[in-house]
UniProtKB/TrEMBL annotation:
InterPro entries: AKR (IPR020471), Aldo/ket_reductase_CS (IPR018170), NAD(P)_OxRdtase_dom_sf (IPR036812), NADP_OxRdtase_dom (IPR023210)
Pfam families: Aldo_ket_red (PF00248)
GO molecular function, one term: oxidoreductase activity
CDD domains with a match to the protein in the record: AKR_AKR3F2
Keywords on record: NADP, Oxidoreductase
Segments passing through the bilayer: none
PROSITE patterns in UniProt: ALDOKETO_REDUCTASE_1 (PS00798), ALDOKETO_REDUCTASE_2 (PS00062)
Protein name: 2,5-diketo-D-gluconate reductase B
Length: 267
């Protein structure tokens, strides 16, 4: 995979909270960190990384361009500002955060500007987030299939998006799953609880292991060090065919995030 399979997310975390979370994650062995311009925490993430003592070359840092910065004359300057906040000369991956159809900037323009950012050495890889199949096709047409490292999308046992994930696999574009725990809603699911008991694991570990076994990258977040440590153990959990079948049956199109004006028409 061109994208690490396991990282720490920072959505909705700011200030000392995100500094402590990222610092704990790095101490525990995480080496991939996911942030975004709109999160308002890039400077905090940069501080945590700088104070961690981990060499920059060992880390994989992802940020996402916000919709206000999609125009060709603003995308690169906004990324340079993100790099300043993150205290780094480059990020490993930069994503278009939302397709934002109708916001006045055409997909070809912002994808081309993103490719230019890569050519300038500001980012090692580029990708997309929250794109449906048709918009992913357009992104491929704009910059080439091999240029798109990942499509970061909401996925959980309650939202499995089989059609989209099958398309991305066919295109050899890595799927990054965010909100894999569905804002914590799955933590009380009786089926997942039974599977967790069977493996002497937690429900969170089961959900993350499910995503990993499907070939997805995951970026769970937590403000608690013990949860960050526990989540990492999902990498060693092997679910059997019966477990995977039971989880597949939990699909309910349980989407948690679909902001009007930013989201596409979902597949």
């Amino acid at each position: 995979m061109s994208v690490p399979s396991f990282g720490v997310g920072t959505f909705r975390l700011t200030g000392q909270t995100v500094i402590d979370s990222v610092r704990s994650a790095l101490e525990l062995g995480y080496r991939a960190v996911d942030t975004a311009q709109i999160y308002g925490n890039e400077a905090d993430v940069g501080q945590a990384i700088a104070e961690s003592g981990v060499e920059r070359a060992e880390l994989f840092v992802t940020t996402k361009i916000w919709t206000d910065n999609y125009a060709r004359n603003t995308l690169v300057p906004s990324l340079r500002e993100s790099l300043t906040k993150l205290r780094t000369d480059y990020v490993d991956l930069t994503l278009i955060h939302w397709p934002a159809p109708g916001n006045g900037v055409e997909l070809v323009e912002y994808m081309t500007a993103l490719a230019e950012a890569k050519a300038l050495g500001l980012t090692r890889q580029i990708g997309i987030s929250n794109f449906n199949i048709e918009l992913t096709r357009q992104a491929i047409a704009a910059v080439g299939k091999d240029e798109i490292a990942t499509n970061q999308i909401e996925l959980s046992p309650y939202l499995q998006s089989h059609t989209l994930t099958a398309f991305l696999k066919e295109q050899r574009i890595t799927v990054t799953s965010y909100m894999t725990l569905a804002y914590g809603k799955i933590l009380k699911d009786p089926v997942l609880a039974q599977i967790a008991d069977k493996h002497q694991a937690t429900v969170a570990q089961v959900a993350l292991a499910w995503a990993l076994q499907l070939g997805y990258a995951v970026i769970p977040s937590s403000t608690r060090r013990e949860n960050l440590a526990s989540n990492l153990l999902a990498r060693d959990l092997r679910l059997d065919a019966d477990d995977m079948t039971r989880i597949a049956l939990l699909e309910r199109n349980g989407r948690e995030v679909s902001p009007e004006g930013l989201a596409p028409v979902w597949d």
